[in-house]
Amino acid sequence: MVGALNNALDLMLKENDKLVVFGEDVGKDGGVFRVTDGLQAKYGDGRVFDSPLAESGIAGAAIGMAIGGMHPVAEMQFAGFMFLGFSQMVNHAARYRTRTRGNVTLPLMIRTPVSGGVKTLEHHSESPEIYWSHMGGIVVIEPSNPYDAKGLMIKALRMTDPVVFLEPTKLYRLFKQNIPDEAYEVPVGKAAVMQEGTQLTIVTYGTMAPLVKDVVAKKKTDAEIIDLRTINPIDEATIIASAKKTGRVLIVHEASMSFGVGAEVAARVAEKAIFELDAPIMRVAGPSLPYPFPAYEKYWVPNATRISQAIDKILQE
Amino acid sequence: MLSKAWDGSVNYCQMMDEQGNIDPLIFPKDLDDKKIIEMYRWMTLTRAADAKALSLQRQGRLQTYGPSMGQEATQIGTAMAMRKDDIFVPNFRQHGVFIARGLPLDVFYLYWKGYEEGCIIPKEVGGMPYIVPVATQIPHAMGIAFAQKYLKKDAAVVGFVGDGGTSEGDFYEGINFAGVWKLPLVIIIENNQWAISVPRARQTAAKTLAQKAVAAGLPGVQVDGNDVVAVYKAVTDAINNAKGGATVIECVTYRMSMHTTADDPTKYRSDADVAMWQKKDPVARVKTYLTKKGVWDDKKEQQLANDNKEEVDAAVDKAEKFKPDPKSMFTNIYSFMPDVLKAEMDAAVEADFWQEE
Ligand SMILES: Cc1ncc(C[n+]2csc(CCOP(=O)(O)OP(=O)(O)O)c2C)c(N)n1
Ligand SMILES: [Mg+2]
Fold first, then answer.
1. Does B24 sit behind a cis peptide bond, omega within 30 degrees of 0 on the bond before it?
2. The predicted structure's pLDDT at residue B356
3. Shared domain check, A204 and A100
4. Residue B350: is its pLDDT beyond 60?
5. Can you give the pTM of this predicted structure?
6. Residue of A nearest to B179 (CA)
7. Which helix (H) or strand (E) holds A76?
C-alpha cells in the first residue's frame, strides 16, 4: 500500500501544480513510513517539504493554503498526534463550506497512519475514524488494499472537500497487489462488496477487511463482505441491500466498540431492515477502553478466533 | 564562555498624541487631510454601526454581540494601510476592518443576527469571515500567506488576534511557521487590555506582547493602538516589507465597552480605569486634530453623523428583510449530496419541521 499511495501522490503532484505535500519529516526523509519517499527529489522542496513540529499549525496551514487557492496534502505523523490538530479540523475544516454557504471551499487532505497490530509505542496505534466522521463536513476515507488506496486518493484529490485519509499502518506492507500504473479513480462514498454471499453480511473496513476475508475463506462461509472504504459519508444503500439479502449482519472493526462505526451501521440496519433480519445484529470490535501498550495489543485487537466465533454464533441464531 | 545569543528590543511608537498633536518630522508623508478625513469617516461609521448593533441586541433584534468601541484606530488604521489585493483574517471583533474594506453593512448585521450568510464576504473586500475560536485564525492567515507566495501573488495577509489570543498555541504555531517559511504576513495584536474578565497582566509575564515575535524570529513592534496614524504607519511598513517576511504589531488599545452583550464588566474593572482610557479615545483624537487644523467643524460633523445614521439604518432594514432557507444548511456540507444527508433533509421537508414559530 505504501507504493500505491506514493504513486498516487506522485501522479497528483504531476497533474495539479497547486498541490503540495507537507508535514513532519515528509521531505528528505520521505515520511516515517516512506509514503512520500522520493517525491521531494522529484518535485523539489517547493512542492514537498517539512513543516515545523506542530499539528495544529499543520492543519491550520493546510486550511489557509486551501483558502488561498492551493490543494494541500498534509501528513500527520501518527493518528494519536493528529488530535493536537483536532480544533482546526472540527472547528474549521469541517465548517468552512457551510459557514460561508459554499463561498469558501477547502480542497485539502490530511493523511495519517492508523490502527495497531504493529507493536509500537503508546499513541501510535489509534483508530480515530469516528472523531472525524461525527460532526459532518469532513470526508473520511480508509482503504484496505493498495488498489483502493491509490484510486481513492486520486479521486479524493480531485474533489474540493476536506478529506481525512486514514492509512492502516499494518496494511502498508502486508501484501502486494498489481495495480495499474496510470491514474484511476475509486468512487468516494461507495462501499465495495469484496465478495458476494448469501448466509450473512459482514460489514468491515481497514485492518479488519483482509482478516475477515481470510477467516471467511478458511471457514468456507458463504458470507457477503462489505468494505466501507469511505467511513463518512456512509454508504447506507449498499449495507441495507445486503442486509435484506442475507438477513444477518455482523460488523467487524478495530476501533473501540462503544459509539463506533458499528453502532452507526447497526442503527441504520435496524431502522431500514429489521423485519428482514433472521438474527440480532452483532459487532466484533476493540474493547471500549484506550488502546494499550504494545505488549498488550494482542489481547485488544480483534483476531481471527473472535471473528470466527461471532460468525458461528450469528449463523446459529 | 558567555556571550550574547540574541540582542533585540521592541520599540513603541506614537505619532498623534491624546490632544491631537503630531510630530511633523515622523508624520507619514502620504497622509494628507483628505486621507485623515476618510479615516475619521470610517471610524465614526464603525462606531455608529457598533452602537446600533448594541441597541438592536438590547431590543432582541440581534444575537450576542461583541462591541468594537475604543478599537477604531487599530482597525481603521490597519484597513487603510492595506492595499487592494491584501487579505485580512479577523477574529470576531474587527468590525471596523470589514467596514473600511467595504463590506456591505447589511452583511455585518446578518452575521450578528445569527445567519451564516453574514460570512459571505464579497471578493473585493478581501477578507475572511469572523472566526470565533480564539487565535485559531492565525494558522489560516499563515497558510493564506503561504498561498500568496506559492502562487506568486503580491498580496500580504493581515491576521488579527487579541491579547488573550496570544496565549493560545495557535498564535505561536502560526507566527513560528511564518518565520520558518518566510511568509508575507502581518499579525495585528489588538491588545485591548482584557480577555473577557482576565486582564492583560494575567495572560503573560512578558513585558510586551510584541516581544512574542522574537521567539518566532520575527520583528515585533508596539504602537499606540488608539493613534490611527501610528497604526497606519506601522502596518504600511510591515506590508512593504512583507516579501521579506512577517511582522508582529502590538496595538495598545482598550475595550471601552463590554466583552459581549452577555458580559457585565462592572464586575471586574473599575470606573476609574475606563475613565482613564476614555481620555485616550481614538475617534475624539482625530476630530481634535482635524478641528485644530481648521479642516473640520460642527457643520461637517453633523452632516457626517446624519450620513452614518442613514447608512446604518438602511443596512439594518435590509438585513431584517432577509429570509433564511433551512435547506442551505444541508446543501453546503460537501461538494456532493450524500444519500444519507439528503434523506435527513427530505424528511425534515416532508414533516414540515421548518415552519416559522
Ligand atoms: C479557543 C477559545 N477559548 C475560549 C473562547 C471564549 N472566549 C471568547 S472571547 C474570549 C476572550 C478573548 O480575549 P482576546 O483574545 O483578548 O480578544 P478580545 O475579546 O479582547 O477582542 C474568550 C475566552 C473562545 N472563543 N475560543
Ligand atoms: Mg482582549
1. no
2. 65
3. no
4. yes
5. 0.97
6. A52
7. none
Say yes or no: A11 and A157 in one domain.
yes
Q: Do A57 and A156 fall into the same domain?
A: yes
What are A125's three cell numbers? 496505534
Alpha-carbon distance of A252 to A266, in angstroms, equals: 11
Q: How far apart are the first and last CA of chain B?
A: 76
Find which of B134, B334, B345 to mutate to test the A interface (most A CBs within 10 Å of its CB). Answer: B334
pLDDT digits (tens, 9 = 90+) for A272-286: 999 999 999 999 999
Known active-site residue A71: no
Report the pocket of ligand 1 as residue ranges, CB < 6 Å.
B 93, 132-134, 162-165, 192, 194-196, 255, 259
Residue B205: Cβ within 10 Å count: 6
A100 belongs to a structural domain: yes
| In the predicted structure, residue B45 carries a pLDDT above the cut 60 | yes
- Shortest CA distance from B130: residue in chain A: A99
Residue B357 has pLDDT above 70, yes or no: no
CATH for A290: 3.40.50.920
B128 to chain A, any CB pair closer than 8 A? The answer is yes
Residues A223, A309, single domain; the answer is yes
Of B117, B147, B177, the CB nearest to A101: B117
What is the tens place of the pLDDT at every residue in B216-252? 999 999 999 999 999 999 999 999 999 999 999 999 9
CA-based radius of gyration for chain A:
19
Q: For residues A141 and A235, state if they share a domain.
A: no
- Residue B128 is given by DSSP the state P
How much of chain A, in percent, has pLDDT values that exceed 90? 99
Predicted ipTM > 0.85? yes
Structural domain that includes position A138: 2-171
pLDDT at B8 over 80: no
Nearest-angstrom CA–CA distance, A269 and A50: 44
The domain that holds A155 is classified in CATH as 3.40.50.970
Least confident window among A36-50, B1-15, B257-271, B308-322:
B1-15
Q: Which domains does chain B have, with CATH numbers?
A: 12-324 (3.40.50.970)
* DSSP-based three-state secondary structure for B2: coil
Q: Is position A181 within any domain?
A: no
How far is Cα of residue B151 from the mean position of the Cα atoms in its chain? 26
Instruction: Count how many domains chain A has.
Output: 2
Ligand in nearest proximity to the CA of B69: 1
Same domain for A233 and A310, yes or no, is yes
- As a whole number of angstroms, the distance between CA A270 and CA A277 comes to 9
Q: Taking residues B126-131, what's their average pLDDT?
A: 98
Please, is B34 exposed, middle or buried when counting C-beta atoms within 10 Å of its C-beta (0-12, 13-18, 19+)? exposed
Tens-digit pLDDT profile for residues A12-50: 999 999 999 999 999 999 999 999 999 999 999 999 999
Q: Give dist(CA B146, CA A52) in Å, integer.
A: 14
Of the residues A171, A201, A219, the one at which a domain ends: A171
